[in-house]
TrEMBL record:
This is SAM-dependent methyltransferase. One of its GO terms (molecular function) is methyltransferase activity. It comes from Streptomyces incanus. It comes from the Bacteria. GO terms for biological process: methylation. The keyword Methyltransferase applies. The lineage of its organism: Bacteria, Bacillati, Actinomycetota, Actinomycetes, Kitasatosporales. The keyword Transferase applies.
Length: 267
């Protein structure tokens, strides 16, 4: 019988870079292993703007959650592909506006879950929960999320940088559709992902895929926009990450437009 600690060590795969840990390195975090920082440096050597792209995506999360919790009054969030905790996590952003907000984080990296349980604590009156599951298993995610969220009331589903980890053969659009189909009218989808429109980024991701435990699949902006099928897009639609409702008092970094994002509502 495998000891639980040995099972976790095997899942960590510290001999190969993992996306959440590489992303953490690119955002300036310390929760990564040498193999992850080495992979991050290879990416930056090929595509030096990648760290700026990571920061832009994080800022999109902040603007999207402020919109969802503030302007449209969503009080429940299902964050799939959580990544390692950093500043302004989903529950902090939402509960800053509405302390009663309830958030379920989903990831399948054991290091993410360890840090999440230690660092992502809810405000009084709200709730945070953590689901150890893969986005490829939406039924399990929904079943476990239902112990914290009321799925008869609107939920904001956030999927930032996660669909690129799903190959075309795994039918990513169907995964999004299954998740959104289980949520009621008035629910929202906030999604962003990397595009295949920049040759340097394509090369960097190809190098990363050659050594990583999980590959990343860049797609065209049109393919990423198709994940919102059947939903009503919020203005300005599917646009570059920096162009989605930018903060008037904060200039975005000048970097290549290599990711797109959008927010849409289920009528």
């Amino acid at each position: 019988m495998t000891h639980p600690r040995e099972e976790v060590r095997a899942r960590l795969q510290t001999d190969r870079p993992h996306s959440a840990r590489v992303w953490n390195y690119l955002l300036g975090g310390k929760d990564n292993y040498p193999v992850d920082s080495e992979a991050g440096e290879v990416i930056l050597k090929t595509f030096p703007e990648f760290a700026a792209v990571a920061r832009l995506q994080r800022r999109f999360l902040a603007r999207a959650v402020r919109f969802l919790a503030g302007e449209v009054g969503v009080r429940q969030f299902l964050d799939i592909g959580t990544g390692l905790p950093t500043a302004d996590n989903t529950h902090e952003l939402a509960q800053r506006i509405a302390p009663e907000s309830r958030i379920v984080y989903v990831d399948n990296d054991p290091l993410v879950l360890v840090h999440a349980r230690a660092l992502l604590t809810s405000s009084t009156g709200g709730a945070c929960a953590y689901v150890d599951a893969d986005v490829r298993d939406p039924e399990r995610i929904l079943a476990e999320a239902a112990t914290t969220l009321d799925l008869s009331r609107p939920v904001a589903l956030t999927m930032l940088g996660i669909m690129g980890q799903i190959s075309d053969a795994e039918r990513p659009a169907d995964l999004v559709s299954t998740l959104m189909s289980a949520l009621p009218s008035g629910s929202y989808l906030a999604l962003s992902d990397g595009t295949n429109t920049n040759e340097a980024l394509n090369t960097a991701v190809g190098v990363y895929n050659g050594q990583s435990a999980n590959t990343y699949h860049l797609r065209s902006p049109q393919e990423i926009a198709s994940f919102f099928a059947g939903l009503d897009l919020v203005e300005p639609g599917v646009v570059s990450t920096a162009a989605w409702r930018p903060d008037a008092d904060r200039a975005e970094e000048d970097t290549a437009d290599v990711s797109v994002c959008g927010v849409a509502v289920k009528k």
